[in-house]
Amino acid sequence: MKHVIGIFLFFCISGLNAALAEPVLSASEIKTEQQTILKKLGKRPEIFAPWRSESVRSVVLERVQLSSDRSVLRLYCNVGLAQISIRQELIDRWADAVREELGEAYASCEVRFYAYNVPIERFIPNYYRPRNARDPKRESSPFNRRPLVRRIDRPLYGRGLDGRHIALWGGHGRYYHQEEDSAWVWQRPALFGTIEDLNTQEFATQYVAPMLERAGAVVVMARERDPQRKEVIVDNDRSTAGARIERTGVWRTLSGGFRWQDTLHAQNPFREGTVLQAKVEQDIKPCITYFPALQQCDTYGVYVSWKALPSNLSNARYTVCHAGGKAEFEVNQRIGGSMWVWLGSFVLDSASKIVLSAPEGVSEGTLTADAVKIGGGMGQVERAGTVSEVSRYAEAARYWMQYSGVPDSIYAQETLSKENEEGKMLDYIDNFKGNGDWCNYIRKQRGVPLDLAVGLHTDAGICDSITGTLSIHYTDRTRAHYTNGKSKLSARDLADLVQTQIVEDIRAKYDSTWTRRSMYDKSYAEISRPDMPAILVEMFSHQNIHDMAIAMDPAFRFDMARAIYKGVLRFLADRYGRAYTVQPLPPSVLRGELLSGDTLRLSWRATRDPLEPSAVPNRYRVYRRVGAEGAFDNGVEVRGTQLLLPLPRDGQVYSYRVTAVNDGGESFPSETISAGLSSANDTMAYMLIVNGFTRVSPPALKYDEKRRLVGFDMEQDPGVPYVHDRAIVGPQQDFNPLSPFEDNHHPGWGASSTEWVETGVTGNSFDYAARLGASALECGVSFVSTSRAAFEQYPVLPSRLRGVTLLFGAQRSYPKRYTVFSNQIIKRLRSLIDAQVPLVVSGAYVGSDPSVTDEVKQLLGYSSAGQIPNTQPHRVGVYHAPTIDRLKPLSNSEVMDVNSMIIRNKNIFIIGFPIERLYWNNGLPQ
């Protein structure tokens, strides 16, 4: 009976549903309804208007397709829809908007979107999909191969980029332009104080590459990455002056190695010389030592080379003996042969050397030894009897490829083509066409297992707001695949993750209106030819002052690079099915304390990253330097946030910096803390040096009479780079927004000089106490330094202080995140003055900065009397303050021998210029 009733109810309900179902439309009714829908939604539907900036072309609704029962509506759009970053929640939002626009008849209709006939769900990156909706053709397995190079005195970062290999380059570079100029020229003009050719190189070499490497990756660059103008070659064929090698064991000579030459024409230098080979056996451990015989202690990049052979060791050992100790590397000599392989950047002196050997326990195999290269050097490819006369670092990739052994079929395609009947040197076209094929050459011919490639560029274009960030990839409208059968949509995923990270981070920290531009799918040679995921990132517009006002901030450079690194990390973790952790930020609140028993307590705090919850350190590495001008050692790892260190009473300066470490990598270094105990006495009294100079900054902004932003006023304030910025080429000269762009030589608004093109601008080294402390030790006074933040947060004991020196350098309240005298600093100064502790305060803006209140000036006994030009010349390695504050005394104060120095009560000295800029000798400024 129950069975009969159930059947009866089923048919009743089915009949009711059929009665309530939408009537089936005829063909003519469907056509009419589709036309009505097109008219209601419009050719350019308003539902896509908020995402207009993400489409190079507006999203155009080309046709609609409606099912006969109105249950499914398909909207077919142009390519503009595929240029938007797609998420499922975005699709749902658009579908709701369409249903609302079309009315109650479509309230339950399923709305589907298409871009050039492809369902837009395909454009959702795997990273944002649920597991059951992932595209397996975008997933892959990492190469099961020893990495090209690994520093073995560093931990493995299992949740970072260990074992990953990344191709990277900054766009453009100086090149020979035969077609018009018959001269060496920049590919892009000098605008707003920089040139894209150098600006992208600065991002790549000083920020992105170090971040990737600190996460464990091997970075292979298409351009020379070392800005050092000097170069030394140590080789068995021909070394530069004074350099030599020493051999241990039996080495035989093979053909096909590097040979150094003064200039290059069409030669491949890695085919001009020879290479050495030795057998490794149980009792035979061959070794080669390279002595560069450097004349000047300086920072140099170190490259090595070998000939790749199947019998070679996959764990050959290179040891770099640098001024701070030894760095050991394991290299895979079965791959990466006949090319320059980067080991790192080191402080090297006359005693430095590089040693190639076999590791302990290896009883068979071979080693090959070719040249070692120290320093970046100068361009040496000749054109029409001339060379570029700039550092190789500043040249285009095409010249580095030639110098690094790449065949001309890769970097000179247009020059060698049959269509070039006149035999011109088509270096410009060769340069941008070569990068993509270079990636394949490095992976397939050199055997380096590249995982992906990233090219950094900046865009042209002027507007009255932010231009923002564009990403470019290639999928051939989703049809393209790599030779391993994987979809090139993975390149779109990479572009999306990197661009998303950039836009989210820049909006959070700098400008909430930072524009997310298109995800451009174009067949550019740089990204269509690599047989791996490859993208170009147009980070911002170098022609738009609104972008440049933010982009010239060193903090922005760091955060832009960090976003690129995070996007790459997330992409590779997702592609290979691995968990990830973002490397931490540098530690902060560093503090040095002198304790009894000649002990230094060094303490610090972890820096929280509000944009990345995983970037939490679980250990630290403390680096030490002996002497005011020495080099840091390889560091020691510690678990806590303080370290007790014995401090010899020998009159030497000891300096320390700290990095934060987690399973994802190692941070950039902290500021430097220095200390030293005088050997002249054993008193516990000391001088405290406070580093109040924490500022990094873009140049001062300049406005016209209508308060429109027109550029940078580098005469007022050239800004403060992070350590050193080689992308700043000279002051802006054209401030007229109506000046038109004519050509690279006459670029109009923003045009700048290039007087600093080979030196750049020195900025904040965060390392000033050592030099001043050395002078104190010369005078028999012990010292210790502390960070500004620690001075603000921790009280000091006046009874032990011989004096306090507060170094403000070029500190000022620009950008607004900085100030000179904070409330906490003022509080500390009051207590020191009340305790009659001698006090020295110096800084370029202690009188003129608007954040310095009359209360502070009254406390310290001075007032501002304007500014005077700084007549000291620019010096490489020392930041330059363009003006000096003229100070005048208040009551109980008097002027010293220059009008920027005030003394009050014989123990408070106020100096209107950065005292740390001076050369010091026997405790006296010179």
From TrEMBL:
The keyword Membrane does not apply. InterPro entries: CBD-like_Golvesin-Xly, FN3_dom, FN3_sf, Ig-like_fold, MurNAc-LAA_cat. Residues 586-680 form the Fibronectin type-III domain. GO terms for molecular function: N-acetylmuramoyl-L-alanine amidase activity. It is an enzyme of class 3 (hydrolase). Keywords: Hydrolase, Signal. GO terms for biological process: peptidoglycan catabolic process. Its EC number is 3.5.1.28. The keyword Signal applies. Residues 1-21 form the signal peptide. SMART domains: Ami_3, FN3. It holds the Pfam family Golvesin_C. It comes from the Bacteria. This is N-acetylmuramoyl-L-alanine amidase.
